[in-house]
Write a structure and sequence with these properties.
Blueprint (H helix, E strand, L loop, with lengths): L1 H16 L3 H13 L3 H8 L4 H9 L3 H8 L8 H6 L2 H9 L3 H8 L4 H10 L3 H9 L3 H11 L6 H4 L6 E2 L5 H9 L10 E5 L5 E6 H6 L6 H4 L13 H11 L3 E5 L5 E6 H17 L14 H27 L2 H6 L2 H29 L5 H34 L2 H31 L4 H29 L1
Parallel strand pairs: 1-2
Antiparallel strand pairs: 2-3, 4-5
Length: about 475
C-alpha cells in the first residue's frame, strides 16, 4: 500500500516538474481573463517562490497586479526577490506597509537585506524596518553596515553557534529543541564565549561521532573564512575553488559575523552572467521584458543616443576624405572591410580581458606581459589577413596600389584593435567604470575611426 502511494506521489511530482512554463503562463492568463480563481490557485499551488517569480516576470504589468490577489496566503517576499528588479518595484508600489511586512516575515535576514537594497523604495524600506522587532532589525542593520556587492551584504546572520567545550550529545539535544533550524545549514560554527571564531563542524559529522566526544576534538579548525568586505565576485570564486556549501564570515579580529551559503553564490553568478550578456548593449540585468512601452523605450534611447554620437564621429572622419572617395569609387566598396575586421579582432580581446578582470586574473604584475601578447596577436593576424584581403582586392579591382593600401590599413587597424581591446577595459576598471557596460562602445569607436582614417589617409597619400 505505502509503496503504491510512493509511486503515485512520485508521478505527481514528476508531472509538476516537467510542466513547461509556457503552458502555466497560458493557463494563468486565460484563468485571469475568465476570472477563474480556483484554476489560478490550482496552477500556482505546486510552484515555489522562484517558479512563481518566473511566471510573474512573464506577464504584462496589469496582469501581474491581478495575479497578486489570487496568490494563496498572499505574496511571499521571496517571490519579489526572485523577480526582475523592474517588475518587482512595480508590484511593491501597489502594496501597503502591512502587506510588505507579512510578505517578509518568513524571510531570512540576508534575503530581506537584498529586498531592501534592490526592490523597495527608501520610504517603504524605512517603514518595513520600523515594523520589525528589535532583534531582527539589529541583524539586518549588521548587513547594511557593509557596502553593496560585498560578503557582508550577502551573509546570513542566523547561523547556529556552539562552543568547543561541550559534548556532541549536548549539541544534539540543543538542536532537537529547535522547531526549525536556518535553511541550508550544513555546518555548525564553533565560537568561544566572546563569539570569536574557532572552527566548524558539519552536521553529518556531528551525528556520526560518539555522543561523549567533545566538539573541540572533532571540529575542523582549518576552514577558510571570508572577510565581510570581500567583493561578491571573489566570494563566488572561493566557493568554486573550494567546493563549499557554506562558509563563515569573520572580521579582521576573528569575530564571527555570519555565514554565506551556496544558494546566494549561485544567484550572484547568475546575475553576473546576465549582466555580462546585457551590459554591452546598454541593458540592465534586471530589464523587464514586459514593462510598459514608454519606460522601456526611454531606457533604450540613452544607449542609442550614445551610439548615434559615435556613428556621427565615424561619418565625420569619412567626410574628411570626400574628394578621395569621389575619385576612387572602389574605396567606398572596400571601406567596411577594414572597420569590420578591426571590430571583430578588438571584440575578442575585449571579451577575454573583461572576463579576466571579473575572475581576478589580471593584476599589475602580468598586465605588461598580456599587453605584449595581444600586440603580437594583433600583428600576426593583421599581416595574415591583410595578405588575404590584398590578394582578393587585386583580383577584384586589378590594382596593386589599392591592394597594398587596404592591406596596410587592415594591419594598422587590427593592431589598434588589439591595443584598445586590452587598454580600454583596464582603463575603465581603474576609473571604477564597469568595462562590460561601456567598453564595447569605446572599442567600436576606436576601430571605426582608426580603420577609416588609416584606409582613406593611405589612399589619399598613395592613390591621388
Amino acid at each position: 500500500m505505502s509503496e503504491n502511494i510512493f509511486h503515485r506521489n512520485e508521478k505527481i511530482e514528476q508531472s509538476i516538474v516537467t510542466t513547461p512554463i509556457r503552458k502555466i503562463i497560458d493557463g494563468i492568463s486565460q484563468a485571469i481573463t475568465e476570472n477563474n480563481t480556483s484554476e489560478i490557485e490550482q496552477l500556482l499551488k505546486p510552484l515555489n517562490p522562484a517558479e512563481t517569480a518566473d511566471i510573474m516576470d512573464a506577464l504584462p504589468t496589469e496582469v501581474r497586479r491581478q495575479l497578486i490577489e489570487h496568490i494563496p496566503e498572499g505574496l511571499d517576499g521571496e517571490v519579489l526577490l526572485h523577480m526582475g528588479e523592474g517588475a518587482a518595484i512595480e508590484l511593491v508600489e501597489s502594496m501597503d506597509a502591512d502587506a510588505l511586512q507579512t510578505a517578509t516575515e518568513s524571510m531570512d535576514t540576508a534575503d530581506v537585506v537584498e529586498l531592501l537594497d534592490e526592490v523597495l523604495p527608501k520610504e517603504a524600506a524605512d517603514e518595513l524596518l520600523d515594523s520589525m522587532d528589535q532583534q531582527r532589525r539589529k541583524r539586518i542593520e549588521l548587513n547594511l553596515r557593509y557596502d553593496e556587492d560585498t560578503a557582508g551584504r550577502l551573509m546570513h546572520t542566523d547561523a547556529i553557534t556552539v562552543r568547543a567545550d561541550i559534548t556532541v550529545e549536548v549539541v544534539q539535544r540543543y538542536l532537537r529543541r529547535h522547531e526549525k533550524i536556518p535553511e541550508d545549514t550544513t555546518a555548525l560554527i564553533v565560537v568561544d564565549r566572546e563569539n570569536y571564531y574557532q572552527g566548524s563542524i558539519t552536521v553529518l559529522n556531528l551525528f556520526l561521532q560518539p555522543a561523549a566526544s567533545l566538539i573541540a576534538d572533532i571540529m575542523e579548525d582549518d576552514w577558510r573564512t571570508l572577510d565581510p568586505n570581500m567583493p561578491e565576485q571573489e566570494v563566488a570564486r572561493s566557493f568554486e575553488n573550494h567546493d563549499w556549501f557554506s562558509a563563515p564570515v569573520v572580521d579582521k579580529n576573528g569575530y564571527f559575523l555570519g555565514r554565506i551559503v551556496v544558494d546566494d553564490v549561485i544567484d550572484t553568478i547568475r546575475d553576473e552572467a546576465d549582466r555580462a550578456m546585457l551590459a554591452p548593449v546598454g541593458l540592465d540585468e534586471d530589464e523587464d521584458l514586459f514593462a510598459p512601452m514608454l519606460p522601456s523605450a526611454q531606457r533604450r534611447s540613452v544607449w542609442l543616443a550614445l551610439n548615434l554620437a559615435t556613428a556621427f564621429l565615424a561619418s565625420w572622419v569619412i567626410g574628411l576624405f570626400e574628394a578621395t572617395l569621389e575619385q576612387v569609387v572602389a574605396l567606398a566598396v572596400l571601406m567596411p572591410i577594414v572597420a569590420s575586421m578591426g571590430g571583430i579582432a578588438g571584440s575578442q580581446t575585449l571579451t577575454l580581458t573583461i572576463r579576466g578582470l571579473a575572475m581576478g586574473q589580471i593584476a599589475d604584475s602580468n598586465t605588461a606581459w598580456l599587453l605584449r601578447k595581444e600586440i603580437g596577436i594583433g600583428m600576426l593576424n593583421g599581416m595574415l589577413w591583410s595578405v588575404v584581403v590584398a590578394i582578393i582586392t587585386y583580383f577584384w579591382f586589378a590594382s596593386v596600389k589599392i591592394a597594398l593600401v587596404i592591406g596596410a590599413a587592415l594591419t594598422l587597424n587590427m593592431l589598434a584593435a588589439a591595443l584598445a581591446g586590452i587598454l580600454v577595459p583596464l582603463t575603465l576598471d581603474r576609473m571604477k567604470i564597469d568595462p562590460a557596460l561601456s567598453g564595447a562602445v569605446v572599442l567600436t569607436t576606436v576601430t571605426d575611426v582608426v580603420g577609416f582614417m588609416s584606409f582613406l589617409g593611405l589612399a589619399t597619400l598613395f592613390l591621388l
